[in-house]
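Forgive a beginner's question, but might I ask you for the amino acids of a protein and the tokens describing how it folds?
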Amino acid sequence: MFNYYIDYNGKSYTLPEIYALFYGVDPAKKTLTKTNISLAADVYANENELILCYELAGINPATVEIKAEKEELSIKAEKLSPNIEGYNVLRNEIHYGKCYRAFTVGAEYDLNSLEANYENGILQIKVPRKPETKPKTFKVNTTKQLKE
């Protein structure tokens, strides 16, 4: 039997280790491994607010940590795998583990006034725009009547 190794960042990995890193399953133990997940997000904006929607299917919303610091909004959570003992993993398409996503929202938004709501697996965060940064419309005054 041949042992194949792949060097990455000064460390050698075997093929089963590479498999486990990429697919989240240890083929020798046939168990799930924890992987980091980037939360899927949609971002919307208008002149009054920014709305960020995160997909949190399978995540308990009570365990979600929302952090606002300077101009960055970050979300941390963990998706726990089901406890199914006595079975071998035949297919592992659902990703389990720690989740994280961060966005820089800009100085024009007030992160201290954000509002977060969870419904049907979607976390929606509304961040209002600071009043002094909202677009303003100005009227143009004229002193003379234009001839037609």
The chain has two domains: 1-33, 35-131. The CA atoms of residues 80 and 96 lie 6 Å apart. The helical segments are 15-23. Residues 1-33 form one domain.
